[in-house]
Every structure is written in C-alpha cells, then in structure tokens.
Amino acid sequence: MESDTWALLQALMSLRKTARLEYPHPRELLAANPYTPPATLAQSIMHSSPLLSELVVVREWLHDSAPSPAALDPGATNGYWRFTRNALLQGKRTGRMGAGLVTELDPDAVNRDGVEEKGLAPDDAAYEKAVLQALYAHVRAGQLEEAVELCRKANQPWRAASIRGALLFQWRAIANEPREVDAMDDEDAADSHQWRGNVRRRLWKKVCSQAAASSSLSPTERALYAALAPSPQTALALKSVARTWEDHLWTLVSLACEERLSAGLAAIERECFWENGLGALEGGSAAIAAGMDAQEEAGVEEWEQEVIQALEGLSNVAVAEGASADNPYHVSQLHIILDRTDALLEAFASELQEGTHVSSPEYTSMTRFFAHLCLFLQMIDMPVSPYATQVILESYLQVLEQAGQRELIAMYAGALGDNAVERYALFLTSLELSADINERRLALTRAREHGLDIERVAVVTAERTIEKAFTILPPAKGPLPFITAMEPPPSEPEWLLVRSIEWTTFLETTYDTALEQANVILRYFLGHGRVQIAKTLLDMLPPELGTLREPEEEATEYMHYRQFFAVWDALARVVECEALEQPQMNKDTRAAWLSDYKTLIEQAREQVVKLLTTDWLVSDAETRAANAKRFRDLVRIRQIYIPELIIRLHSILVNSRNRVPENLKHALLLVNIVADSRYRLYDDYSSQPGRRLGDYLGAVRQAVLAGLEGGGSDPFRILTV
C-alpha cells in the first residue's frame, strides 16, 4: 500500500508540476473541422478540465495497481458451449432431450424470456461464469485488448465486439489537431487512413445500460456492462461487486470520467458530424452553440463539486475485503487525489502530538512515510506546514535513534539541505522520457530558484537516472556479442540511459562529471555490442568534453572512444565507397573512383594500425586493483572490438587485392602487428567461436593462398614484391 501511494503521488505530482500545454477547445476543433472524430474531441475535453485530467491519471493508477487477472484466466475452450451442444445432439438422436437445457445455442438463449428454468450444461455454465469473472477483472485492470483476446479464445467473438464498443471513434486522417507524437504513437501513413472505434457509441452505451439493469443476467455480467459504460444508471450494478476500498474508488472515478465525457460530447453534438450528421454542417448550429458556453461552464463547475463531494464520501465507505477506509494509506491516497496534502500532514502531526499512533505496529513505517512525504513536497514546492514538518521529522528522528541508525539521524537532522537536493533530484528523475531537453533545462533551473545547489541537483539526477536504467538493463557480462550492421532501435531503458547525460551537460561546471558518466555509459553500450547507440551518445555530448584534461584517466578513456569511432567510421566509408563501383563506369570515372577507394583504404589502415599499437583503453600501468570492474569492462570491450577491427581491416585489404595489388602485402604485414609481443593483441582473442585467434589465422591462410594466384610456390613472395 505504501508503494501504491508513492506511485499515485508521483503520477499526480508529475502532472501538477509540469507546465500544462495549451490545447484547443472542442468547439475550436469543430469550427475548423466538423468531421473531427469523437476520440480527438474527448482528448480536448479532458485537457480542458484539470480535475478530469487528474481523474484520468488516478484511473490509470487504479488500473496498474488492480489485482492481476491472470489468476482468473479460464483457459481456452475446444468449442462454443461444447457440452451443451453435445447433449442437444445426443437428445435428438435418442429422442429424449435433457431436462433443464436450452434448446437453442445462440448467445441470448439462456437469457431469453420464457426459458428461466433452462440453462447450459454444468461444465459450460461453469466456464461461462469463469469467463465473465475474468473479463470483469481485465476491464477493472484497464486491459480491454486482453479482454477481447480472452473472448476470442472462448469462441465468443460477439462479446469481443461488445467490449470493443467502448473505444471512441477515431480517424486520424481527418483529425487535423496538433498531437503529441512519441515512439508508440508514430503510425504508418497507410494506417492513419484507417478509422477505428465505435461510430455509434451513444447507442452502444444505451444498450449496455439496459444490459446492466437486466435481472436476467448474472451480477458479474451486469457489472461487466456497467464497467464498460459507467453511468448513474449502471452505478448500482457496478457498486454491487465492489469489494475493496480501491474498487469503490475506481467505481467513483470511472463514473465521474464517463459522465464528464458524455456531457462534454453532448454539449457539442450539434456541431459534430458524427453526432448530428449533416445538421452539423449547417450554419445555424454554430450560432446555437455560441450561447451555450456559459451554460457548459456552469455544468463543469457543478460536476466538479459533485465529484469532490463523492470523493470525500469515500472516507467512511464500508468495505467487504482489504484495508478499511480509515487506513492511513487510504486516507493519504484520498488527500493526495483531493490535493489536500497540507491538511493531511497537519492532521497526522496533531495525532503524533496526542500520542495516537505510538502503540501502533505501523508507527515506524507510517512515521517514515510522512517524514519522506514532507521532504518530497517541500522540494517540489508544494505547500507544507512548517509546524507539521517539524513534528513529523522530530518523531522520525526518535524512531531512528531507538533503532541505532545514527548515520540516518545525522542526515535528517543536520543535512536536510542535502536531503532536499536528493528529493528534488528524484522528482526530476521521475520525469523520465516525458520531458524534452528544454523542459529538463527549465526544471533544473527551478532548483536554483528554490535555493538548491543546481550543480548538485544535476549530478544527483543524472546518477539516479543512470541507476534506474541499470536496474532494468541486463549487466554487461556473459558471452561476447557479435557486431551486426543493423542494430535494433534503442529500448526505452537504453534511451533513458543515453538521455541521463543531458543533466550534466547543461552547465560547464558539471562537465567533469559528464565526462565520467559518459565513459560509464559508453563502456556499457560497447560492452553489449551496441555501437550505433554509443555513437548517438557521443554525438550528443558537447565538444568541450574532448578538451578536458582532468581527471587524466577519464580524459584518456574518452579520447580512446573518440579514436575508436573515427576508425569505425573510416572502415564504414571504405565499404560505402566499394558499393559505388558500377560495371558501366567509363575510364575516367573508374579512375577517379579507384583513387578515392585507395585513399580511403590507406586512411583506414593507418588509423586501425595506430589504434592497435597504442595501448587502446588498457595500458600496462593499469592494474585490476585500481578499479576491478572498470578493468573487466575495458578488457571485455577490447575482446569484442580488437579482433573485429583486425578481421575487418584484413577482409578489406584482401578483397581489394585485384584493384590494389599491394593491399595483399599489407594484409600479411598486419599479422606481424598481431603477433608482436609489445602490443599483445593475441591476448584480446577468446575461446568463443568467431572470436578465436584461430579464426583470424584461417583468414590469413586464405590470404597466403591468394598470394599464389599469380603463380609460383613461394608463399612469402608477395612480401618481397
């Protein structure tokens, strides 16, 4: 429950503290385009009401924290009502129909008037009940797609279509409003011309309401339809299956969101083609709508008051399962939703003064929670009572003293400023990928406005972001990766790791930290064979990082990475140039191409040889004792890329021998560098297939044989030519 409370706090505070974007009013969208789909209008309605936006976030949080529907999965079935069907077929063959069984197999057979005493075979009835319970659990968890898939597995496509009716009609090809585009929302042009959702959702909702009120359906099925189309008419069916406090909150929030959405769409239906047909295109509808704004605003205010009153009523609602409404975490969650955290802290401080919670087994955890809540709210500039903060922190200090945690006592009592930096950095970390670089820069600037050490905030935020990414990403160990030309695009955790460097590149005073963190991130990506994303990171870094000379060890490592990518690009340019050769080239064009080709190969060879002969990344003076993990990471990188560079250069030289004959000699001379004990390049080969020294020697053998193509039996003749 504490984890859920922090998740709610993070979700709502990120929304409240991030600058709100300006979205067009639904009427503005319709004035520009009366064909604007209802889904687009719904987004505009949501953004026009801060309370509705927050309720949507609360609903998503309730979905995420809902019990997993996996435990209720009824599994697949071999056919639609198989046992009932077999019993009916058996009855027709024998002439004796089973008592109590339906005589038809359409989906409404059980609920049709006049068949109250008839039903399905026991096995089918049990499966049907399990399906309905699982479907409701999926809807409760916000998993409509999973619910649809379950219907398909249960051979009930008609029910899948009913559930899909909850989706608002969307047609992006004609929705010309500005949209936020992210990696998950970037659709193909062809897909954007496909409409989806329910064109007649209002009619569908009316039918769902009738189904939710039908006494012929089971309570679970009535609750399912009520959950799909929550409204005051279906509230009773939905509340009848609410067992926990969270269920009651979800019911209330779902009703409030759907009610506001329906009212918002109803207010503009005269102007919308999808609601009013061709009547929306007539000029009179706009004139009628012009006088409705004041009435609509009054309706929104009334709705907000009703929602707040309903939320307040949850403070004493009775629950059948789980923690009661007066549980401290439920009280905290309700105050967070109502944006009354100051009243929450003052009430808890007063109870601490009265000794209300001292004997409670949750005293330690609750005091810790509220102490952290005080500090967190302070750092994100939320109103916090100084008196309440003092009382709560003093109580927590006493808890730490009794536990003998003196280090924490010193931190909370004497280093509150540092703690404030840490907490604000956690807030910035929670932004993750939702904020672009300008929003991040602005959020970091706010730290100085609140008297925080902006350099320290930047460093801590970068560190926490890196730590968060590394907890998700796999460690760089195990078999060495193979380098592929087409790498998969970066995942969200990988991109989060890349963008973590932004925090320490805003200020020149944190460039030294950025240098160190850049090396850490580059080591990770290169250790995983992710060359392209490592190159992306290098391109993001300010050029001033390359001019730093301290700390010397970090500066040298960074220089070596830049050297590596220069070599990598040089080899890539050779391959690109080689691909430009065409059989139909004329003499002058081929001569120019061959000159460029020879120059690029020579440049690449010189750069590779320079890297191989200059103690790249790991010098003789460096020992394991200095930094064992860093040393292992650097050795791993050498084991990946030294053999790769050698074999790539070797292949380029050998493959170009027909155009540049002396390159075969250079390929064989490269063997001397690999074998030279000064460079110990042979130590960078491993026993892994494809990374063995024997693999390279096999390629050398083929090069020697290629040297005999011109005749003769001396394999070393090519070296003396």
UniProtKB/TrEMBL annotation:
Its main location: nucleus. InterPro entries: Nup84/Nup107. It is found in: Nucleus, Nuclear pore complex; Nucleus membrane. Belongs to the nucleoporin Nup84/Nup107 family. One of its GO terms (molecular function) is structural constituent of nuclear pore. GO terms for biological process: mRNA export from nucleus; post-transcriptional tethering of RNA polymerase II gene DNA at nuclear periphery; protein import into nucleus. Part of the nuclear pore complex (NPC). The keyword Cytoplasm does not apply. Functions as a component of the nuclear pore complex (NPC). Keywords: Membrane, mRNA transport, Nuclear pore complex, Nucleus, Protein transport, Translocation, Transport. The keyword Transferase does not apply. One of its GO terms (cellular component) is nuclear pore outer ring. It comes from Trametes coccinea (strain BRFM310). This is Nuclear pore complex protein.
